[in-house]
Amino acid sequence: MKLNKSEIANLIPHREPMLLIDELTNIVKLKSATAIMYVKKDAFFVNGHFPNNPVVPGVLIVEAFGQAAAALTAHGIDRKEFEDKLVFLMSVEKARFRNPVVPDCKLELKIEAVRSHGRVWKYKGEAFVQGKRMADAQWSATIVDKNN
């Protein structure tokens, strides 16, 4: 099972330039997936982080983890459960940035749903470029009504 960017956009509210993940592959319903983020030379952060030596900001890697988890969850649950709802990060734990991620690469984010309790979900993930681990984190998210 594979989702493209437009299918992901149907599941989560993020839009350009903040829709960071391009594909969701290897989907195991409500369990795990691999998100692909094509880091391009013309990405919106390149000119400012850092000029002449661009690096993907760590917070964007964490955001991509969160988007991948939200898409995995929305894809696996009944549409009524996330329609008119938003997924918000609650906490980010043990985030480690092991190697800089530079433009013109394919960042693979392997994520796993660790557990859920009601509307609160806990995840963990690892990010790789060409098989080399670049970052890892654990995080929690919750599903809330859009009106709140």
Report on this model:
It is a single chain. This protein has 148 residues and is of the alpha+beta class. The protein has a single domain, classed as Hotdog Thioesterase (Thiol Ester Dehydrase, Chain A, Roll), CATH 3.10.129. Helices cover 19% and strands 45% of the residues. The chain is built from three helices and seven strands. It has helices at 5-9, 58-76, 79-82, and strands at 3-4, 23-28, 32-39, 85-97, 105-117, 120-129, 132-145. A seven-stranded antiparallel β-sheet has the order 1-2-3-5-6-7-4. A hairpin with a 2-residue loop joins β5 and β6. The N and C termini lie far apart (33 Å). The mean pLDDT is 94.
Let me know the CATH homologous superfamily. Answer: Hotdog Thioesterase
Shape: globular
- Unreliably modeled segments: none
Number of strands: 7
Main β-sheet, spatial strand arrangement? 1-2-3-5-6-7-4
SS class: alpha+beta
Q: What's the domain count?
A: 1
CATH topology: Thiol Ester Dehydrase, Chain A
CATH architecture assignment: Roll
Largest sheet, strands/sense/barrel? 7 strands, antiparallel
Q: What is the radius of gyration?
A: 15 Å
- Mean of the pLDDT scores? 94
Q: Total number of helical segments?
A: 3
Sketch the topology as an H/E string, one letter per element. EHEEHHEEEE
Distance between the termini: 33 Å
CATH class assignment: Alpha Beta
Could you give a quick summary of the protein structure above?
The protein is of the alpha+beta class and 148 residues long. Helices cover 19% and strands 45% of the residues.
